Amino acid sequence: MSDLTLEQAKAALATVKDPATGRELLADGRAELSLGTGDHSGELLLKVELISPGYPLRGELDAALRAALEPLCGGAGVLLRIEYGLRVPSKPARQDLNRLPTVKNIIAVAAGKGGVGKSTVSVNIAMALKQMGARVAVLDADIYGPSVPKMLGTPSRETSTTAEGDRISPAIFRGIPVMSVAFFVEPGSAVIWRGPMIHKLLKQFLEDVVWGEIDYLIVDLPPGTGDAQLSLAQLIPITGAVIVTTPQEVALIDVRRAVNMFNKLEVPILGVVENMSHYTCPACGHHDNIFASGGGKTLARELGVELLGQVPIDNRVSYGGESGVPVVEGAPNSEQARVLNEVAARAAFAVSKASATGPKRSSLLRTVS
C-alpha cells in the first residue's frame, strides 16, 4: 500500500503555476487531485482545466506538473495519471452590454475591404475551435453579403421559432449554431437597408436568438467600417478582433482604417491573419508570392500584435468554401488547415489569457483529451 497522501501531493502541486496566467493551479480552482481505489489503486489522478482550446503552452505545463509530482509518486510506488479538460474563462459584461449572458467570449473577424477571405477565415476558426473541444457559434453579421451558410454546407437543423413562440432557434451547421440574414431573404435578393434597420436586425439576432452555452461566438463582420461594426460595438462586449488581410499594400491601406475604427471603439486587436500569403506549386515546389509579400508581418509589427498565421493559396480552401466543407475538416492534413488551426488556437488563447484575470463563471469540466 502506498504511503502517499493527498496532502503531500497538494503541497507538491502548489508549486506549479499556469504559465499563461502565472497563477497556482490549485489556488485558481483549475486542478483536482484524487488517489485511485479498486482497479485504480496505486494511482494518483490529476485533472487539470486548460484555459483555451489548443492551449499552446500545454507541453510546458505538463513538464512542470510531472517534475513536481513524479518524484513524489515514484518514491511511493504510485502511478501519476494526468487528464486535461477545458474551462474557458470570461469577464462579466457591462450591464448595458449584457445581451448574451450565455456567451463567454466574442471574437470579431474583420477586414478593411472585401475579397481577402474574411468569411473563409471565420468559418475555419469556428470549425477548428469546435474540433478542439470548445463550444462555438457563428453570427454572420455581413448583412449585404452573407456567405457563412454557404461555406458550412447543409444545416442539420433549420432556424425556427421556439416552442414559446417568442424567440429564435439558430440553424445548426456541422454542430455549430449559426445566425445569418441569408435565412430570411430570397437567394440572390439585394438587402437594401439603412443603418437603423441594420441595427435593429443585429439587436434581434443578439437578444432573441437562443444561442445556448457558448465559449466563443465568432462574428463575421462585413468589410469596411460601416453601420454593422458600430452597432455591434454598441450592443455587445466584443472581446477582441482578428484582422484579415492579403500581403499587398493596397489591402493594408484599408485594413489600417478598420484597425483605427476598432481602436476608437476600444476593441482589442487579437492579431493579424495574412491570407493568400503565397503559392507553392504542388508539382515542382516552386514558391511564388502572387500578391507581394510581408504585408501581414509588417502590419502586425506596426500594431504591436501577433501575426496569427500566413495562409497559403490553395484550391482546397476555395473548394471548401464552395462545397460547404471548411478546409480544416475537408483537408485536415494540408498546410492550409495546419495554419488555420494555429490561427484559431492563438486567437482563443489571446482571448482566454486576457479573460483569465477577471471574475469567472462556474462551468463543468469537459475532457478534451
Question: What is the H/E string?
Answer: HEEHEEHEHEEEEHEHEHEEHEHHHE
Uncertain segments are: 359-369
Average pLDDT metric: 88
Tally of contiguous helical segments: 11
Fraction of helical residues: 25-40%
Provide an overview of this structure.
There is one protein chain. The chain is α/β, with parallel strands linked by helices and 369 residues long. It is 34% helix and 22% strand. The chain is built from eleven helices and 15 strands. Strands 4, 5, 8, 9, 10, 11, 12, 13 and 14 form a nine-stranded mixed sheet that branches. It has a four-stranded mixed sheet with strand order 1-2-3-15. The chain has a two-stranded antiparallel sheet with strand order 6-7. α1 packs antiparallel against α2 (58-76), α3 (118-131) packs across α11 (335-355) and α5 packs parallel to α6 (227-235).
Can you summarize this structure?
The protein is α/β, with parallel strands linked by helices and 369 residues long.
Identify the notable features of this structure and list them briefly.
369 residues; 15 strands; four-stranded mixed β-sheet; nine-stranded mixed β-sheet; alpha/beta
Secondary-structure topology with pairs:
Elements: H1 6-13, E1 31-35, E2 43-50, H2 58-76, E3 79-86, E4 103-110, H3 118-131, E5 136-140, H4 148-152, E6 160-161, E7 168-169, E8 171-173, E9 176-180, H5 195-207, E10 214-220, H6 227-235, E11 240-245, H7 249-264, E12 269-280, E13 287-288, H8 295-303, E14 306-313, H9 315-323, H10 327-330, H11 335-355, E15 366-367
Parallel strand pairs: 2-3, 4-10, 4-11, 5-9, 5-10, 11-12, 12-14
Antiparallel strand pairs: 1-2, 3-15, 6-7, 8-9, 12-13
